[in-house]
Amino acid sequence: LPAAIGSVNYMEYGMADLGLFLPFYQGLTSVPDAYHAGETPLNEKAASWIYRKPQVLAMTNYNKYAPIVKKTYADYEAKVAKEQAEMEKQYLAVYKDNPIQAQAILQNFEDKTLIGGLQVAEELTHTLMAQILKDTESAYHFEGF
Description:
The chain is mainly alpha-helical.
Protein backbone atom coordinates (compact mmCIF):
# COMPACT_ATOMS: atom_id res chain seq x y z
CA LEU A 1 0.00 0.00 0.00
CA PRO A 2 1.09 3.59 -0.46
CA ALA A 3 2.71 4.94 2.71
CA ALA A 4 -0.13 7.42 3.28
CA ILE A 5 -2.67 4.65 3.94
CA GLY A 6 -0.28 1.78 4.64
CA SER A 7 0.10 2.80 8.26
CA VAL A 8 -2.81 3.68 10.49
CA ASN A 9 -2.84 4.15 14.26
CA TYR A 10 -6.00 3.95 16.32
CA MET A 11 -5.95 6.50 19.11
CA GLU A 12 -8.31 7.56 21.86
CA TYR A 13 -8.27 10.06 24.69
CA GLY A 14 -8.58 9.01 28.30
CA MET A 15 -9.19 5.47 29.45
CA ALA A 16 -9.29 2.73 26.84
CA ASP A 17 -12.27 1.00 28.44
CA LEU A 18 -14.52 3.99 27.80
CA GLY A 19 -12.71 5.50 24.84
CA LEU A 20 -13.53 6.08 21.21
CA PHE A 21 -10.79 4.71 18.98
CA LEU A 22 -10.28 6.74 15.82
CA PRO A 23 -7.99 6.03 12.86
CA PHE A 24 -5.08 8.36 12.21
CA TYR A 25 -3.40 7.59 8.89
CA GLN A 26 0.25 8.33 8.22
CA GLY A 27 -0.82 10.49 5.26
CA LEU A 28 -2.97 12.77 7.39
CA THR A 29 -1.80 16.34 6.81
CA SER A 30 -3.97 18.20 9.32
CA VAL A 31 -6.45 17.67 12.11
CA PRO A 32 -9.38 19.80 13.32
CA ASP A 33 -8.45 22.58 15.75
CA ALA A 34 -9.90 20.75 18.77
CA TYR A 35 -7.15 18.15 18.41
CA HIS A 36 -4.52 20.89 18.80
CA ALA A 37 -6.11 22.58 21.81
CA GLY A 38 -4.32 22.35 25.13
CA GLU A 39 -5.61 20.52 28.15
CA THR A 40 -4.86 22.86 31.01
CA PRO A 41 -6.53 24.74 32.30
CA LEU A 42 -9.77 23.00 31.43
CA ASN A 43 -10.42 23.83 27.79
CA GLU A 44 -13.98 23.01 26.74
CA LYS A 45 -12.94 23.07 23.07
CA ALA A 46 -10.05 20.61 23.42
CA ALA A 47 -10.66 17.12 22.08
CA SER A 48 -9.09 15.63 25.19
CA TRP A 49 -11.74 17.22 27.40
CA ILE A 50 -14.60 16.56 24.99
CA TYR A 51 -13.77 12.83 25.06
CA ARG A 52 -13.08 12.68 28.81
CA LYS A 53 -16.35 14.26 29.93
CA PRO A 54 -18.50 11.20 29.10
CA GLN A 55 -15.88 8.97 30.70
CA VAL A 56 -16.01 10.91 33.95
CA LEU A 57 -19.80 10.93 33.94
CA ALA A 58 -19.92 7.19 33.28
CA MET A 59 -17.63 6.55 36.23
CA THR A 60 -20.21 8.04 38.62
CA ASN A 61 -22.15 4.77 38.20
CA TYR A 62 -20.03 2.52 36.02
CA ASN A 63 -22.42 -0.43 35.91
CA LYS A 64 -25.29 1.75 34.74
CA TYR A 65 -23.59 4.29 32.46
CA ALA A 66 -20.56 2.50 31.00
CA PRO A 67 -22.73 0.30 28.74
CA ILE A 68 -24.24 3.47 27.23
CA VAL A 69 -20.77 4.83 26.45
CA LYS A 70 -19.48 1.54 25.09
CA LYS A 71 -22.48 0.99 22.81
CA THR A 72 -22.43 4.56 21.50
CA TYR A 73 -18.74 4.38 20.69
CA ALA A 74 -18.91 0.85 19.29
CA ASP A 75 -21.67 1.97 16.92
CA TYR A 76 -19.58 4.92 15.72
CA GLU A 77 -16.46 2.78 15.35
CA ALA A 78 -18.42 0.26 13.23
CA LYS A 79 -19.74 3.09 11.03
CA VAL A 80 -16.22 4.48 10.62
CA ALA A 81 -14.83 1.04 9.75
CA LYS A 82 -17.28 0.71 6.85
CA GLU A 83 -16.50 4.22 5.62
CA GLN A 84 -12.80 3.54 6.05
CA ALA A 85 -12.89 0.46 3.83
CA GLU A 86 -14.71 2.47 1.15
CA MET A 87 -12.26 5.36 1.43
CA GLU A 88 -9.28 3.03 1.01
CA LYS A 89 -10.82 1.55 -2.15
CA GLN A 90 -11.40 5.03 -3.56
CA TYR A 91 -7.90 6.11 -2.60
CA LEU A 92 -6.28 3.12 -4.31
CA ALA A 93 -8.43 3.56 -7.41
CA VAL A 94 -7.06 7.05 -8.07
CA TYR A 95 -3.65 7.05 -6.39
CA LYS A 96 -1.48 6.07 -9.37
CA ASP A 97 -3.02 8.53 -11.80
CA ASN A 98 -3.87 11.34 -9.40
CA PRO A 99 -2.06 11.30 -6.04
CA ILE A 100 -3.36 14.78 -5.19
CA GLN A 101 -6.95 13.58 -5.52
CA ALA A 102 -6.08 10.50 -3.46
CA GLN A 103 -4.69 12.75 -0.72
CA ALA A 104 -7.89 14.80 -0.75
CA ILE A 105 -9.94 11.60 -0.35
CA LEU A 106 -7.88 10.62 2.69
CA GLN A 107 -7.97 14.07 4.26
CA ASN A 108 -11.74 14.42 3.73
CA PHE A 109 -12.29 11.05 5.40
CA GLU A 110 -10.11 12.02 8.36
CA ASP A 111 -11.75 15.42 8.79
CA LYS A 112 -15.23 13.90 8.71
CA THR A 113 -14.27 11.08 11.07
CA LEU A 114 -12.50 13.24 13.64
CA ILE A 115 -15.19 15.93 13.70
CA GLY A 116 -17.84 13.22 13.87
CA GLY A 117 -16.10 11.67 16.86
CA LEU A 118 -16.24 14.98 18.71
CA GLN A 119 -19.94 15.33 17.90
CA VAL A 120 -20.66 11.80 19.14
CA ALA A 121 -18.80 12.51 22.40
CA GLU A 122 -20.68 15.78 22.94
CA GLU A 123 -24.05 14.13 22.28
CA LEU A 124 -23.07 11.32 24.64
CA THR A 125 -22.21 13.87 27.34
CA HIS A 126 -25.69 15.36 27.00
CA THR A 127 -27.32 11.93 27.10
CA LEU A 128 -25.43 10.95 30.24
CA MET A 129 -26.13 14.29 31.95
CA ALA A 130 -29.84 13.94 31.23
CA GLN A 131 -29.84 10.40 32.64
CA ILE A 132 -27.85 11.42 35.72
CA LEU A 133 -30.24 14.33 36.35
CA LYS A 134 -33.21 11.98 36.04
CA ASP A 135 -31.62 9.44 38.37
CA THR A 136 -30.72 12.13 40.90
CA GLU A 137 -34.25 13.50 40.84
CA SER A 138 -35.62 10.00 41.42
CA ALA A 139 -33.30 9.36 44.36
CA TYR A 140 -33.40 12.83 45.91
CA HIS A 141 -36.55 14.61 44.89
CA PHE A 142 -36.16 18.37 45.03
CA GLU A 143 -39.20 20.60 44.79
CA GLY A 144 -38.94 22.77 41.71
CA PHE A 145 -36.18 20.65 40.20
